[in-house]
Structures are given as C-alpha cells and as structure tokens.
Structure to design on (179 residues):
C-alpha cells in the first residue's frame, strides 16, 4: 500500500499500512490513562494525607495544593474526553471493531466531567473559602473521599476500556501473515 492523502483520508489509518489504532486512538488512551493515574494518586496519597491533617492546617494546605492539583489533572481529563469523543465518533461511523468499548470509555470519562458541577466545584470552592469552619473539615473530606472514588473508578474503568478498544481495533484489522 502506498501512502497518499487519499489513502489516509479513506482508511483513517495513521498507524501504517494494515494497522489500525493510529495516533488519535493512542492519544486518547494516553490522556485517559494519565487522568486515571492522577486520580488514583490523588485518592490514595493526597486525600488520606489531607484527612489525617489538623483541620486548620489542611485548609491552609488546600488553599495552595487544591487548585494546583486540579490544574494539573483537569487538562488530562479534558484531553481524554475530547480525544475519546473523536475516536468514538470515527469508530462508530466506520463500524470499527471495539466501537462499543470506545463508547463506554467515552461515557465513563464524560461521567468524570459531569461530577465537576454535580459535586466537586461546589465542594472545592467551599474548602477554599477562608470562612469555612475547621470543625466541618473531617465531614467534608469524608464526603469528598467517597465522591472522588467514584471519579477515580470512572477514570480507571475508562482507561481499561480504551486500552482494550485500541487492542481490539488493532487485532480486528491486522494484516494477514505473509506466507
């Protein structure tokens, strides 16, 4: 197969002749895995540390680390949703193997985005408010912890689904072995 603009535009294959799962698919998996890893790290390292802190010390720490953590993780979350959306649209439109897995991965990551206005924006803004009562920190963090497990689980599940979708797409369009 020779590489031409027409070949690429009709096949959607940017990975090479006979291979599926090109750059866009790989970027979607990478962004989703990066978000899932960041969410898991936050959930298993940062949040337990925050919960063990003195409430006043936590509020001072969260004022600095909370926004930085969000600013670090959110771009991966957004990149994941956008790239998964593009890959899913293409997979469904072209009836590619693994398209249902892409749909489920996209839905899971859309769920992580939906949790932002449902819970996290309000909760984080409350914790950033200088008048937030220290005696409410432990209860607020217990709730935050539970909601963040939901978000982390959606991210991890989406990462696994995206990986399997990528592998399925590649296996479904593999070139026959030379004889």
């Amino acid at each position: 197969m020779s590489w031409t603009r027409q070949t690429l535009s009709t096949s959607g294959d940017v990975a090479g002749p006979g291979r599926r799962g090109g750059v866009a698919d790989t970027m979607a998996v990478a962004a989703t895995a990066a978000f899932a890893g960041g969410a898991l790290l936050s959930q298993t390292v940062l949040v337990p540390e925050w919960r063990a802190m003195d409430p006043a010390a936590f509020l001072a720490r969260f004022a600095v680390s909370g926004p930085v953590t969000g600013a670090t993780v959110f771009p991966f979350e957004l990149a994941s949703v956008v790239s998964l959306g593009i890959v899913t649209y293409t997979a469904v439109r072209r009836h590619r193997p693994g398209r249902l897995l892409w749909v489920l991965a996209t839905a899971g990551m859309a769920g992580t985005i939906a949790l932002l206005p449902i819970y996290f924006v309000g909760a984080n803004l409350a914790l950033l408010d200088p008048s937030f009562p220290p005696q409410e920190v432990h209860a607020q963090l217990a709730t935050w912890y539970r909601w963040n497990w939901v978000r982390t689980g959606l991210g991890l599940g989406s990462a696994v689904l995206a990986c399997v979708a990528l592998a399925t797409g590649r296996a479904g369009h593999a070139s026959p072995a030379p004889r």
Remarks:
- Confidence is low (pLDDT under 50) at residues 1-19.
- The two ends are 17 Å apart (CA to CA).
